[in-house]
Amino acid sequence: MEAAIEVQGAVKSFGPIRAVAGVDLVVGQDEIYGLVGPSGAGKTTLIRMICGLLKRDAGKVRVLGHPIPEEKRKVEGRLGYMPQERALYRDLSVEENLLFFGQLNGMKRDKIRKRTAEILDFMRLTHLKRHLAENLSGGEKQRLSLACALLHRPELLVLDEPTVGLDPALRQEFWKHFHELRDHGHTLLLTTHYLEEAGRCTRVGFMRAGKIQAEGAPAELRARVARVQGGTPSMEEVFLSFASTEGK
To answer: Is it true that the peptide bond before 67 is cis, omega within 30 degrees of 0?
Structure first.
């Protein structure tokens, strides 16, 4: 089965700063792959290259079998992207935002209407559908952002810090949605600062200084650290272990 995402030797610099420094990454279909690391590690830059929003300086990126950004248009209807900064139109209602993003992804109006009702119910936003986006709470805006990314039923969902700023109960709810999506055949690539969330992914990549320094299933990574340190390490202890040794 072809991988959903393949990255080989990806490099991206901004002036003298090398944000992504030769990353190799493969995300299989039906995975939840988590990129974990501190601010400035290069996570957002990497996923923006994967989505075709930034042109790489070197290396190769393939998404759903297509080179990116060269064939970006061929995957647009199959890819859903939720940026870290909420890409909502403040002066549009919840329902109008979904209509706009549906049209942006090439959906027909009648299909958008039907799907909007489904996604509003799924994200528990039906009672807010006529409210302006600017009047929503932070958690409601996060749910609407995710709804906009999900509306066209993308095969691949790329989420940049989707749970940042959410209360623990809402974060739990988001992760329930993520696993439901995976169960229905979707692939997810997400970034997070919350190390306990890494344990909920099928595979994790610890990113630091523009490189993925270690990756694997959470249980596998814990076992690797336990063989050296003993005990049953948490994901935070795993991350600190790889960070202190620079992945060696």
So the answer is: no
Q: Are 191 and 43 in contact (CB under 8 A)?
A: yes
CA–CA dist 37, 28 (Å, integer): 21
On whether the CB atoms of residues 198 and 36 are closer than 8 A, the answer is yes
**Token match 């549009």: residue?**
92
Please, are residues 145 and 80 in contact by the beta-carbon 8 Å criterion?
no
Q: 158 phi and psi, to 5 degrees?
A: -115, 120
Along the 248 residues of the chain, how does pLDDT read in single tens digits?
A: 679 999 999 999 999 999 999 999 999 999 999 999 888 899 999 999 999 999 999 999 999 999 999 999 999 889 999 998 777 899 999 999 999 999 988 888 899 999 999 999 988 899 999 999 999 998 899 889 999 998 998 999 999 999 887 888 888 888 998 999 999 899 999 998 888 888 999 999 999 999 999 999 999 988 888 888 888 888 888 877 877 665 44
Q: At what angle do helices 138-150 and 94-104 cross, to 10 degrees?
A: 30
29, 75 contact by CB (below 8 A): no
Q: First-to-last CA distance in the chain?
A: 31
Neighbours of 59 (CB within 10 A): 16
Prediction pTM value: 0.89
H or E, element range at 170: helix 168-183
Residue 57: strand, helix, or coil? coil
* CA pair distance 99, 109, nearest whole angstrom: 8
